[in-house]
Amino acid sequence: MQSTHSARAGAVWAAAVGAVNRVSLWLGGLRWVFMPLGLFALVAVGVHAAADRVDDSLRFVLQGADALMDTVWGRFAWTRSWVDAVGERECTRAARALVLLWELVVAGVMGLPLLGYAEEEAPGPLLVALRRRWGGLVKDVTRRPTLLRVSRPVGALCFVLAGVVALGQTLQASLFHAGSGLLGADAALLVARLLALAAMLGVAASLGGRAFLRHLQHADAVSERDEGRPTVARLLHGLPATVVMVPLAVAALVATAPVMGFFR
């Protein structure tokens, strides 16, 4: 009797394991869909975090420009009525609109190449495959540097770091608020910080490295197509997009400063 129950339990367990394996294989087959979207989302979060950093600065610049123009309009009777046409509210709205447009442009520049991400079977051991596949791209950056080969991978790295930190901060806050009533403030903060740090490391390892390498690959492919163009045109290909992207990339690095809070 007992052997019959054991056999049934074993059959149920085997069926459950088989079902899980089938679902896992099916989900694994969809990596070509969710992996590019995950890369795009991570970089987009980093761009948004950077845009939040420049919002107030841009508003301050617009207010300064408005004050300067007010001094000019106020000197003449026929333009004195223009002084009150733009105030703090208008400057705030203009700053938000400009930052939103800026964020969308940079998210498109840095995110669209990631949608072309595709995985390939690694020929042999992982380290050997990485050396063969990416070693040549790294050598191209050092031996045949172009604006794209340098700026796009570095920008991707900045936005990836900012995105990882933003996700970690959000997760830590959510876990702390959920667990503070049960564990107490100190214990909940420790648990939330450790879990957020683990999640940050996992996202950085699974998505961050791929985003960096994909931009390295894309920039190298574009630079290869430019080999027949004049030297100046080839070296400066992508200059407008780079000029727009670099300030937000610097702001993204500033946005990574809170990561030190996870180690205190």
Structure explained in plain terms:
The chain has helices at residues 2-28, 31-73, 88-111, 126-143, 147-183, 185-225, 231-235, 239-255. By secondary structure, the protein is mainly α. It has one domain. The model has no long low-confidence stretch (mean pLDDT 75).
What's the arrangement of secondary structure elements?
Elements: H1 2-28, H2 31-73, H3 88-111, H4 126-143, H5 147-183, H6 185-225, H7 231-235, H8 239-255
Helix pairs in contact: 2-3, 2-5, 2-6, 2-8, 3-8, 4-6, 5-6, 5-8
Concise description?
With 264 residues, the protein is an all-alpha fold. The protein is built from eight helices and no strands.
Output the number of helix runs. 8
> Count of DSSP E strands?
0
Mean pLDDT: 75
Category by helix and strand content: mainly alpha
Portion in beta strands: under 5%
- How widely separated are the two ends? 59 Å
Shape: flat
Domain module tally: 1
The percent of residues in helical segments reads over 70%
Compute the gyration radius: what is it? 26 Å
Catalogue the unreliable spans: none
The H-and-E topology, N to C, reads as: HHHHHHHH
Biggest sheet architecture: none
